[in-house]
């Protein structure tokens, strides 16, 4: 059954004189030919992408609420076909540069393509706010800042610019209203010889105050907050790091901090930004490519190329929760991966003249239903493919959250890869109430977490 959204009440109060991203007439497509979050509602011509019918909101048999693990609703499905280096040319138009590179370098590697399922589902309040945003939300300061009135929904369901689409990625509904935690999130780095190193085990807290409109004391400019406590390796145990991001980063830059037991004080960490490598990830990722992009959009020109069909990691329940044998010498175990055909938004980022960065160009392929799942490629200053990321998610069907965190990243210069945010040791927890600002003060976090 097609998803139907009543639009009259949502649009009737919007003045034609509003400084709007799109016209009320164009916004009428939401809930009709477009989903409330701007994806094409219909399937594609050959049926390989199904129509959107509201997402996955029913738990399969065997699911235990609160366990931290979500049962795979598609565990009995078989692949439709397989892509290898031998036949990849037939699928060149739906593969990224990074996928092609992995296939070409590794003849034993394969991609199993499964039936596509559009499982993304959101709470009604988020969809209503997203529809509202279509005609009221806007960026300012040349796309670098987002208006606080956009809070509560995806800002640009009908995006017109690259900056708008990147804001959809930055403030996506990924962690529910009150946040998520992990007790043992592992980061694994595999060198060119196949040696696997666990570079970090961390407990984490992530929240998106952008969706906490009715939570007292929240700064309306604050849209993202995260902190991590390192548990392993032993030499790093007890270290804490955190950061906060704001809707106008030109006025309120990222507020990052760190704590080490030896120094016993909280220090500001302005270096947790741009192309600084992330230490806990073995330097495989930069701070501004966490989850494909993180931070300020000031060093690159972002161009919205358009919508296209790609093969992306999707409904990755096995990779998240049922893959004890994850590693191969030069890539993740393909038996654990699931690839599906979906529509994505392509954004091309080019380094601005006079700006410094290790990358000259970056390309993002963002799933039209979640704005978080997808693919990412980055090129060095010589125009050579440097890094690629494959980021798949799972639908938390008991919470209406399209959750996207665990991923694979490749460093082609060093011949290394990593598996990041692996929660198989302890699972993931969705919070059902907000933490107070007092609890989330860095000094309070250190006092509380360092006692554990």
TrEMBL record:
Q: Any idea what this protein is called?
A: DUF1329 domain-containing protein
Q: Which Pfam families match?
A: DUF1329
């Amino acid at each position: 059954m097609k998803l139907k959204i009543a639009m009259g009440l949502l649009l009737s109060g919007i003045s034609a004189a509003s400084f709007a991203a799109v016209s009320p007439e164009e916004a009428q497509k939401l809930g009709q030919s477009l989903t409330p979050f701007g994806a094409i509602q219909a399937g594609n011509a050959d049926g390989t992408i199904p129509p959107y019918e509201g997402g996955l909101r029913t738990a399969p048999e065997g699911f235990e609420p609160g366990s931290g693990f979500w049962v795979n609703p598609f565990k009995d499905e078989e692949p439709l076909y397989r892509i290898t280096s031998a036949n990849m040319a037939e699928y060149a138009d739906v593969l990224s540069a990074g996928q092609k590179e992995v296939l070409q370098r590794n003849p034993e590697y394969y991609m199993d393509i499964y039936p596509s399922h559009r499982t993304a589902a959101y709470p009604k309040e988020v969809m209503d706010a997203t529809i509202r945003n279509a005609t009221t939300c806007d960026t300012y300061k040349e796309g670098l800042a987002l208006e606080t009135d956009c809070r509560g929904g995806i800002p640009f369901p009908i995006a017109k610019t690259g900056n708008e689409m990147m804001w959809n990625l930055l403030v996506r509904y990924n962690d529910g209203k009150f946040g998520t935690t992990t007790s043992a999130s592992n980061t694994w780095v595999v060198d060119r010889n196949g040696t696997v190193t666990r570079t970090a085990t961390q407990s984490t807290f992530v929240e998106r105050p952008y969706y906490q409109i009715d939570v007292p004391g929240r700064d309306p400019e604050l849209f993202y907050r995260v902190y991590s406590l390192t548990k392993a390796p032993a030499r790093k145990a007890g270290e804490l790091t955190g950061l906060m991001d704001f809707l106008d980063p030109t006025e309120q830059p990222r507020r990052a901090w760190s704590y080490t037991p030896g120094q016993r004080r909280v220090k500001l960490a302005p270096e947790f930004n741009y192309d600084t490598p992330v230490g806990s990830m073995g330097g495989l990722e930069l701070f501004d490519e966490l989850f494909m992009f993180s931070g300020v959009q000031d060093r690159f020109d972002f161009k919205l190329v358009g919508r296209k069909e790609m093969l992306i990691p999707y409904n990755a329940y096995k990779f998240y929760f049922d893959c004890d044998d994850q590693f191969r010498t030069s890539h993740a175990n393909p038996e654990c991966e699931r690839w599906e055909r979906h529509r994505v938004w392509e954004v091309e980022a080019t380094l601005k003249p006079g700006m410094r960065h290790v990358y000259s160009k970056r390309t993002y392929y963002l799933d039209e239903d979640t704005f978080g799942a997808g693919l990412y490629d980055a090129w060095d200053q010589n125009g050579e493919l440097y890094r690629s990321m494959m980021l798949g998610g799972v639908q938390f069907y008991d919470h209406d959250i399209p959750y996207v965190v665990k991923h694979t990243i490749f460093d082609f210069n060093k011949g290394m890869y990593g598996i990041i945010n692996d929660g198989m040791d302890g699972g993931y927890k969705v919070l059902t109430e907000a933490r107070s600002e007092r609890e989330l003060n860095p000094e309070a976090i250190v006092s509380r977490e360092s006692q554990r």
